[in-house]
Amino acid sequence: MKTFLKTAVAAAVIALGGAFSANAEQVKVGFSPEAYPPFYSQDASGNWTGWEVEIVQAICGAAKLDCVLTPIPWDGLIPALKTNKIDAIMNSMSITAEREKEIDFSGKYYNTPTAVIGPKDQKYDATPEGLKGKILGVQVSTVHAAYAKKHFTGSAAEIKEYQTQDEANQDLVAGRIDGTQADSIALDAFLKSEQGQACCDLKGYVAPDLEVLGPGVGAGVRKGDTELAGKINAAIKEIRADGKYAEITKKYFDFDIYGEDTQSN
Amino acid sequence: MPARAGKLGATLIDAIIPAVASGLLDLLALEPPGWGGNLLRGLVSSVEIAVGAYVMGLLIGIGGAYGKLYGGPVVRDLLGLYTTIVRAVPELVLILMLYFAGTDLVNRVLIAFGHQAVDINGLIAGIGVLGIVQGAYSTEVLRGAILAIPQGQVEAARAYGMSPGLLLRRITLPAMLPFAIPGLANLWLIATKDTALLAIVGFNELTQTTRLAAGATKAYFTFFLAAGALYLALTLFSNVIIGRVERWARRGMPSLTETR
Amino acid sequence: MAETPAVAAVRKGGGWLQPHRIVLISIALAIVLASIFYLRWDWLPAYLPLAVQGIWRTIWLLAVTSVLGIALAIPLGLAQAAGPWALAAPARAFCTIIRGTPLLLQLWLLYYGLGSLFPQIPWIRDSFLWPYLRQAWPYGVLSLTLSFAGYEGEVMRGAFAGVPKGQLEAARAFGMRRWTAFRRIWLPQALHRALPTLAGETVLQLKATPLVATITMVDIYAVASRVRQDTFITYEPLLLLAAVYMAVTGIIVLAFRRLEARFPARVG
User: Fold this and answer.
1) Could you give the CA distance from residue A101 to residue A148 in angstroms, rounded to a whole number?
2) Distance between CA B147 and CA B152 in Å, rounded?
3) Left if phi > 0, otherwise alpha if psi is -120 to 50, otherwise beta: which for A255?
4) Which CATH number covers residue B172?
5) A136: left (phi over 0), alpha (psi -120 to 50) or beta
6) Are residues A79 and A101 in the same domain?
7) pLDDT value, residue B85
8) C245 vs B76: CB contact, 8 Å cut-off?
């Protein structure tokens, strides 16, 4: 009986410890549990898959970090990072001056142009003149939302903000919006889907604006956490050099999505 | 116009029949290519949070009701403030506040007292947030039920020299139960439905898993209907249980003609 | 209604402003002042016009859906309380389904669920309804109205059933027609019985309105979310949001109190 009690107490302590205390070596990587194919999506057995999931694993492997994917809604990621709920954000978050006021970033791990797609039966360009009178959908709190508000307010009839890009795509299919602006690869994946093929095509890429769109997507870390940022930077370099990055990318895309090599971090 | 209505009917049937014939069953299958298993797992975690939040709410409610009835003036006013705020501010706002601020606060307090920061997982945070909301409503329900006990019963018990603890256990709790059960039953139904709000903070309960399944398969209509059926089944099942509990609690009392 | 001990204590103690309340109020004031001075409010001027618009949308949504919901709830309640089986059963099923599923799910089913069916119905884009079907607010209004009707249908059923039979029999004995008796006797008394419940239910309806932000409607909740997302300030917009909802709740409670006071205490 005594031993039973001892084991029970020990088990309870371990269980509680597991539930409450964070392992010192663990790095909690925040991502939003909303489908963002081909970067993040959930399959029917409940596992997260996609390019970014594999890249996160590769980066953590190279940096010898024990990463735990922690789901946090998109608009709560930065507050969660600041309040220590997570230690890093790797969720296709673009490096921007506005965000750098709140958090630090590693170097980029991909960079792709920004595109606008719309229904096939409407012909227009991704310019302020082309979008005159159109209803444009964007995901809240993204560089695309910021860009659309800066460049298309006044010419577009309305800029609608969605919780997820998936829902914006859905409303494009439903015909409630005339276009959506987002990352070109994410939109490309949608255009290749059955639904996307039936309804929509590419209207064009938006004019560059480095200030809003930023130099690419990086891992967000807490302000001053140079140690983690350094480890992630080294790991990105390593997987770029040893072919791991190319190997993962080949599974999803037919070109290198890293963009131009930049030395700045 | 009738022609158009006929056309709508025809197109709707065209749209739905093939879906029913081929896709529907595959989509909702329990094994992985289908998403049925995911939905059921979501339902289980919804029920887990609802049970946890409900129990926590009840505990807060018992303490709150006693505090409101027999506490000092400061306790009464503070409890009044708590129930007023929670009942006036939308659950969605409270969830966001407590979810972000609450866990932050807990950690700051722990660090201030020299402990290590803890990782409060989604389940515990969800239960805590909904439990605090439920607690405010429970407080009011239980307070009303205790007030509804005929005063003579309590006085008689006091006259017999019962200690306050014994009085609570033997008289107050059993006597208030019949008055409290309709309100408490309603709170349970609210708890099950409020879990859906946790989808907004990304918690993997039934509504969130449904949203993911719908997003992945583009079968929005099918999946939202299926989740609705699951919630409804939970409510109807709860109603059966509540009916039994109510009959049990009212045993020996004059039958109540429905007044509502 | 039994007087609560707290109320009794105030009556005996003479006056609402007791010593401990003065202390509590000064603590509360200190907290409010501290949050004004120590928290960040520099975003407020820039977002004020949007916030005013958001508050207006929230109140508009609340008013429209409550009125429409009650209008639907009256036949729903009547059908369940006195209707033939063929009317009572569907009304009952409607109330059970609405009350048995989360509003968020109903909203998403209407907005995204119906939206996903549109591509299969090509002519719908040429119909006169299309300009409305494209926007978000009709779905928000519809789903909040149906939800309110579902809950209030149940309240009205109880209210209709609770009007004493003798009243209706007396009306018939006076030779009133059924419609006149309904209009003059049954409905006013049922509404009067439902009034105290309606105050609480309207507050619950207010608390349900922020859900429409998830289908791109810009109410006050959506405005606060936008501030959060644009400026990365978490707590301040939420605090202001809570204050706004508490103020609106206060107005609703006071309005219903005045409405109740306008009717004599006992009609029947």
Assistant:
1) 21
2) 12
3) beta
4) 1.10.3720.10
5) beta
6) yes
7) 93
8) no
Same domain, A141 and A57: no
A75-98 pLDDT, tens digit per residue, is 788 888 988 888 999 999 999 988
What whole-number distance in Å separates Cα of residue C3 and Cα of residue C8?
Answer: 6
How many domains does chain C contain in total?
1
**Domain match, A189 and A139 both:** yes
How many DSSP H helices and E strands does chain A contain? 11, 12
Q: Which two tokens stand for residue B174?
A: 């059993």
* Residues B168-175, mean pLDDT to the nearest whole number: 86
What is the distance in angstroms between the CA of the first residue and the CA of the last residue of chain B?
Answer: 43
What predicted TM-score, i.e. pTM, was given to this entire model? 0.85
CATH of the domain at A74: 3.40.190.10
Picking from C96, C105, C246, the nearest residue to B89 by CB comes out as C246
Find the CB nearest B121 among A19, A33, A194.
A19
Burial class (CB in 10 A: 0-12, 13-18, 19+), A51: buried
Please report where in the chains the tokens 């789903």 appear, as a residue.
C143
List the single residue in A21, A46, A73 with the smallest CB-CB distance to B116: A21
Q: A217 forms bridges with which residues in the sheet?
A: A94, A110
Rounded to a whole number, what is the distance in Å from the CA of A42 to chain B's nearest CA?
A: 7
Average pLDDT of chain B to the nearest whole number? 84
Q: Do B93 and C106 lie within an 8 Å CB cutoff?
A: no
In a mutagenesis test of the C interface, which of A72, A89, A161 is the best target, namely the one with the most C β-carbons within 10 Å?
A161
Radius of gyration of chain C (CA): 23
Q: How many domains does chain B have?
A: 1
Residues of the domain holding A200: 114-213
Indicate the Cα dihedral angle C41, C51, A143, A67, nearest 10°: 60
Name the strands in the sheet holding A217-221, side by side, starting at the edge strand that comes first in the sequence.
A66-71, A26-31, A88-89, A217-221, A104-110
**Domain check: are A189 and A228 in the same one?**
no
- The H or E element containing residue A118 is strand A114-119
Q: Is residue A19 part of a domain?
A: no
Is residue A12 in some structural domain?
Answer: no
- Say if B15 falls within a structural domain: no
- Is position A101 within any domain? yes
Residue C69 forms part of a structural domain: yes
Residue A264 lies in a domain: no
Q: What is the dihedral of CA C152, C158, C164, C169, to 10 degrees?
A: 70
Find chain B residues with C-beta within 8 A of A46's C-beta. Answer: 38, 41
Average pLDDT for B110-132? 80
Distance of CA C191 to the CA centre of its chain: 16
Domain housing C245: 43-262
Distance (Å, rounded) from C-alpha B62 to C-alpha C108?
A: 36
Peptide bond into A38 cis (omega under 30): yes
Query: pLDDT tens, C67-103?
Result: 999 999 999 999 999 889 999 999 999 999 999 999 9
Interface of B with A (CB under 8 A): 32-35, 37-38, 41, 99-100, 103-104, 107, 116-119, 121-122, 124, 200-202, 204, 208, 211-213, 215-216, 218, 220
> Which tokens is B35 given?
């998403």
Q: Are residues C210 and B93, on separate chains, in Cβ contact within 8 Å?
A: yes
Cα B70 versus chain centre, distance? 27
Q: Which ipTM did the prediction report? A: 0.86
**CA dihedral defined by A75, A80, A82, A86, rounded to 10 degrees?**
-130
Confidence of residue B165 (pLDDT cuts 50, 70, 90): confident
Looking at the fold, whether A142 and A231 belong to one and the same domain comes out as no
If asked whether residues A201 and A173 sit together in one domain, one would say yes
Question: pLDDT per residue over A26-38, tens digit each?
Answer: 899 999 888 888 8
CB atoms within 10 A of CB A254: 6
Domain containing C89 — which CATH number? 1.10.3720.10
**Tell me, what amino acid is at C17?**
L
